[in-house]
Design brief:
heterotrimer; A alpha/beta; B alpha/beta; C alpha/beta; A: alpha/beta; Barwin-like endoglucanases; B: alpha/beta; Rossmann fold; 3 domains; five-stranded parallel sheet; 35% helix; globular
């Protein structure tokens, strides 16, 4: 299966804003933020249909999200995961002495993961916290 | 007969709209309709009355589930945690009022805590840059009344500050800007063509993470010096053109956001943006303003500033106030294991910190004060739900341009629920007893 | 409440013409009284006793002060005091935290402080900081000299409307007086421009600083407010600006103070040191303190405060936005600016008054010359325009310079370009040494009278508030100059409103400070109310209902001074 390299950025969307106020325990949060927005060109390279789940991996972690059409595109080479625990599973946590993790500009690898599930937000964080030995 | 409460302040983002109207049922208990708010504000008001809202504190059990406890038990647990801790982290503060922040600071001073707010993952790098090079700025009304050049750099207000453009920056007809949008030229810089850049007269699709070079290139162009053929993916002709557009205005503003505060160059990006603004004042009148995220992160910075001298990442553990981003900031403290208890309030680091920091919180004695269920509340040892500021209690908040607006109480909180301020007062009282303090 | 008797001290009190007489001071129920029945006795033998001092102009609470704190972490590096029980930690040298501000003023024996400039839109912020400043009573001056309502009413020569608007604004911001900063020039700064002379018209509004000043003096007297119009004149800081200052002072001619508070001036010109410069550029920069002091001496309806330069690294901050931009272009230090819709602006820039730079030496001289050439210490007050010319914690050092020619000579010798300082100023030729009585006039009775508060503060006459400071300083002994500075750096005892605050140099209480404001009642003015409504709907970015400061969380202990201006 195809794998592509992308530059990952993260940030706000209206849907993310509405979802967090609606309750992060709800599926609407996963629907709003457990996604990666991909440019049409990158969809082609990946060879998957829209709304297929993908695995996104960086040097810092890995996460399953649903691949959707870029809403603020075109941006070939850029992947967009709205701010939230899915993005924060894989962004660069280093602050380089500024206090600020490097939320924008993380090199990632994206591969299709059609049989994997996107976790709910709270589930995702709880699992990660329990997994640490 | 329903009744309408006017001049309500929306407690979501730094736009701090104060023209919301809330229609209540005739017994004043239910929110029936919310007018003038954006989709996010609307959701906040309505969801505050959802039936599934947590109404009482919840203590984590050994099996990871949560069991309801009383507020008194919650106060005791929290106070004990503070009393036993050598260096607690008190994080968040951005979605509550200044009165609560102030009470929290008293706990911090008594227990030698580190007080940090959401700027640490948002505009903290802006504050660092301001501490290096200053900041020429103004209130939002100056934009409404005077500005004819609007620059959005690394921000997407259409999504993050939905009413910003209509209340302050693109559409309003002000005293000297009677033609509204037609009086203004808009420049947008963003690696993605966004819903905001659709409003732009000039759009620059900068190469992601290369804003620093483009900012310095604009400064170079402003002074008529030579440029390479492209900078950050933008051809030099476009840069010279943009510089002319900026210079030709009579009052300009640069609004900026996470696109420049969170990318690798961090505070250096903001430094360059502020210096561009300063340079533009040689030719015209320019200001720059950070698009603050939470509705009262600015307030947290202000209160910390006047009480302790620094706007975030304030370490009180040695009895005096110390500040050193990278050293006293939450994510660094957590990653290095330098705090032994975590008190989170009015924020959600569980969702918005890198997961490696969240794992550390989960292992420590921890309390999360939040009206909602969030990734933070579900990994802390104790979750304390409280009333919504701006809906169920009032209190002062500071807008993104530092203007203080006193939020309103619109409806009563659920029976027996405490506000942030009330909970913190009880904790403070108990910690004083435990420490034998005055 | 308790009774106290402060016995055997050397009392300096202009309200009773006590010039170091040995006298007792009795306190009962928060006031000075003639006698007490069963007091706690404090023996002040060999010590100096004065009323609590009044600060007539300092930047201690509000948005630009906080910009200064936030953007200067370095200001906290070497000056800090740790938390001690309920006594908060203290930090900051030129821009102290609010806790430090209260404690530091109290240590100096100051009990009432006026925040010099409050942008009305930010009034809540000012009041929150005032609330978090322990011990001292405070008031704040809203700024009027660049306010769109004021500019329009004055252009149309509408005195009643100007007065009604002032009364309204004082009430909604809980403000104390009519402050004017760089009249007209700060509105011009909204476009990057300025008004340097009193006849320079304001862009669009087409009214001049001269008209603004006169219009506000007239409105102030029409209302009969406790304090007069309080002005930071145009052209601050520039060589040769003394002519602008004389032009400004002349605008008080022909006006007589009308009020029920004992105030006699119609104009208070603040930090006049910054406005008393000669020369045409920096090279020939010189002191013009004499013509300015002479003018003030001759015109009894004017009061001034000096704005002494203390020769420190400090932070300048003022509503004179264009001046601050000019300053950053001069010294290239970080510049913050904050324009405020419809109302005003502010700028902040750090500044180093170095003894190695002859201009700073001359500025130092100008301040001292003004005070030493002043014939009436009841009309000339000690300030540093804190923190602009230096931090208020340097007041004891200023006292030393004023009281000791030897101390001044030592400083003059220490300047790198001493010859230039001496040649381009008069300081070396002045041998006057102020007395403690004169200092008491300049820091207690004078400011109280000028603020219209002589019925409450500024003296030890029975009936006044029991704000009393005792210093371990024997005025009948000889003193080295440094001993003056040391002794007045810390009170031995301090009472505020009859409550002991500092006993034997230890803080024992924070008292219950009050926020002073002026409630001026005027006849209903539907025109002004309609204009207010309209401007809020069309031009402000907050609603009219969200503008007024109300609530105990802002002002826990208000003290309203009532004025009936209904005529």
């Amino acid at each position: 299966m195809a794998k592509i390299q992308l530059n990952l950025i993260s940030g706000r969307t209206i849907q993310q804003g509405v979802a967090i106020e609606g309750g992060k325990e709800k599926p609407s949060y996963r629907d709003a933020c457990g996604i990666i927005e991909l440019d049409a060109e990158d969809f082609s390279k990946l060879g998957i249909y829209r709304n297929t789940n993908v695995r996104v991996t960086s040097a810092y972690g890995t996460v399953i999200v649903k691949a959707v059409d870029a809403t603020q595109g075109p941006h070939p080479g850029l992947g967009w995961i709205p701010m939230g625990p899915w993005a924060n599973s894989i962004v660069n946590p280093n602050t380089y002495s500024t206090g600020m993790p490097t939320f924008k500009g993380t090199p990632v690898e994206v591969e299709p993961a059609p049989n994997e599930t996107v976790l709910l937000g709270i589930e995702l964080v709880q699992k990660a916290c329990r997994a640490e030995t | 007969m329903t009744k309408t409460v006017t001049d309500v302040i929306c407690p979501f983002c730094g736009t701090l709209c104060d023209d919301i109207e809330v229609v209540l049922s005739d017994d004043g208990k239910k929110i029936v309709e919310v007018m003038n708010a954006c989709a996010i504000g609307n959701e906040k008001f309505h969801h505050s009355q959802a039936a599934d809202r947590p109404k009482r504190p919840r203590m984590q059990q050994p099996d990871g589930s949560y069991k309801e406890v009383s507020y008194d038990e919650a106060v005791e647990f929290t106070a004990q945690m503070f009393a036993k801790s050598k260096k607690p982290l008190m994080y968040g503060w951005s979605s509550t009022n200044c009165e609560a922040q102030s009470v929290g600071h008293q706990i911090a001073e008594l227990t030698g805590a580190v007080v940090d707010n959401t700027a640490t993952v948002c505009h903290g790098t802006t504050l660092i840059a301001v501490q290096d090079v200053g900041i020429p700025s103004c209130t939002l009304g100056e934009i409404k009344n005077r500005a004819d050049r609007i620059i959005y750099w690394g921000c997407n207000p259409a999504h993050a500050h939905p009413r910003h453009m209509s209340r302050y920056s693109i559409f309003p007809r002000g005293f000297f800007t009677g033609k509204g949008q037609a009086s203004r030229k808009v420049i947008v810089v963003d690696p993605r063509p966004t819903d905001t850049s659709n409003m732009a007269d000039y759009y620059y699709q900068v190469e992601q993470g290369r804003d620093y070079e483009l900012l310095q290139a604009f400064r170079t162009a402003l002074h008529g010096h030579p440029l390479p053929d492209t900078v950050a993916g933008i051809p030099k002709e476009k840069i010279y053109e943009g510089a002319e557009v900026m210079k030709s205005g009579r009052f300009g503003i640069i609004f900026f956001g996470m696109g420049v505060t969170q990318t690798l160059s961090k505070n250096h990006n903001i430094d360059a943006a502020i210096m561009l603004t300063k340079d533009l004042n040689e030719f015209s009148k320019y200001s720059i303003m950070p698009m603050r995220g939470h509705y009262n992160v600015t307030g947290s910075g202000e209160v910390l500033g006047w009480q302790f001298g620094f706007p975030y990442a304030v370490d009180l553990s040695r009895g005096i106030a110390r500040y050193n981003p990278g050293d006293t900031t939450s994510n660094d403290l957590l990653r290095r294991g330098e705090v032994d208890a975590v008190f989170v309030i009015a924020s959600d680091p569980g969702a918005h910190f890198p997961i490696s920091s969240v794992k550390k919180i989960a292992k420590l004695p921890s309390v999360a004060v939040d009206p909602h269920f969030t990734p933070t509340t579900e990994i802390c040892k104790l979750h304390v739900p409280v009333a919504f500021v701006g809906i169920e209690c009032g209190g002062n908040a500071y807008r993104m341009d530092n203007v203080p607006i006193d939020t309103r109480k619109v409806v009563e909180p659920p029976e027996g629920m405490l506000t942030d301020e009330q909970f913190l007062e009880k904790v403070l009282h108990r910690v004083r007893e435990l420490k034998g303090a005055a | 409440m308790s009774e106290y008797l402060i016995k055997n001290g050397f009392v300096f009190d202009p309200t009773q013409k006590l010039k170091g007489d040995q006298a007792d001071v009795a306190i009962k129920d928060g006031k000075i009284v003639d006698k007490v029945a069963n007091p706690k006795v404090i023996d002040a033998k060999g010590m100096t006793v004065m009323a609590g001092a009044l600060e007539v102009h300092a930047h201690v609470a509000g948005p630009k002060v906080n910009i200064g704190r936030i953007y200067r972490p370095e200001d906290k590096l070497f000056t800090f005091r740790p938390t001690e029980g309920s006594h908060h930690m203290e930090g900051g040298f030129s821009i102290p935290t609010t806790y430090k501000t209260g404690y530091a003023y109290a240590r100096l024996g100051y009990t009432t402080v006026m925040e010099a400039a409050m942008p009305p839109l930010f009034a809540r912020h000012v009041h929150e900081e005032i609330r978090d400043t322990p011990i001292i009573d405070e008031g704040a001056f809203p700024v009027f000299g660049n306010n769109w309502f004021v500019l329009e009413y004055i252009k149309n020569k509408e005195l009643e409307n100007t007065a009604a608007y002032i009364a309204w604004l004082l009430r909604v911001t809980k403000g104390f007086a009519v402050k004017v900063v760089n009249p007209g020039g700060t509105e011009a700064w909204g476009w990057g421009l300025n008004c340097l002379q009193i006849k320079d018209p304001v862009p669009y509004f087409d009214v001049t600083p001269e008209e603004i000043v006169k219009g506000l003096i007239e409105a102030n007297e029409h209302l009969g407010l406790p304090h007069s119009m309080h002005i930071h004149g145009n052209n601050l800081g520039n060589p040769g600006n003394y002519t602008t200052t004389l032009d400004t002072l002349k605008l008080a001619s022909g006006y007589k103070a009308k009020n029920k508070f004992g105030r006699e001036q119609v104009m208070h010109h603040t930090h006049i040191q910054f406005h008393s410069y000669g020369g045409t550029k920096w090279a020939d920069f010189e002191s013009k303190a004499r013509p300015v002091a002479d003018y003030v001496n001759k015109h009894k309806n004017i009061t001034i405060d000096v704005g002494f330069v203390t020769l420190d690294e400090t932070t300048t901050m003022t509503a004179d936005g264009p001046f601050e931009h000019h300053l950053t272009e001069l010294n290239h230090l970080k510049w913050a600016n904050a324009d405020v819709e419809l109302e005003t602006a502010a700028g902040v820039v750090p500044y180093i008054y170095s003894p190695d730079v002859f201009v700073s030496g001359i500025q130092w001289a100008v301040g001292l010359e003004i005070a030493l050439l002043s014939k009436d210490p009841m009309r000339c007050y000690i300030t540093t325009d804190h923190p602009n010319a230096g931090p208020f914690t340097r007041y004891p050092r200023i006292m030393k310079w004023l009281m000791s020619q030897k101390a001044r000579d030592e400083q003059i010798k220490a300047f790198k370009a001493s010859d230039k300082v001496v040649a381009q100023s008069e300081i070396a030729n002045i041998d006057r040494e102020l007395t403690l009585y004169e200092i008491a006039q300049m820091t207690r009775a004078g400011p109280a009278k000028c603020l219209g508060l002589s019925g409450i503060y500024g003296g030890l006459k029975p009936g006044l508030d029991a704000d009393v400071a005792v210093y371990d300083f024997n005025p009948e002994k000889e003193h080295k100059p440094m001993e003056i500075e040391d002794a007045f750096s810390e009170v031995k005892y301090l009472w505020k409103t009859g409550v002991p605050i500092i006993m034997d140099r230890k803080f024992v209480s924070e008292g219950k400070k009050r926020t002073l404001w002026v409630d001026a009642k005027v006849a209903d003015n539907p025109q002004v109310m309609r204009d207010v409504k309209e401007k809020f709907v069309k031009y402000y970015t907050v609603t009219e209902k969200n503008y007024e400061v109300t609530g105990k969380h802002f002002i826990p202990n208000p003290y309203a001074i009532e004025v009936d201006a209904t005529h």
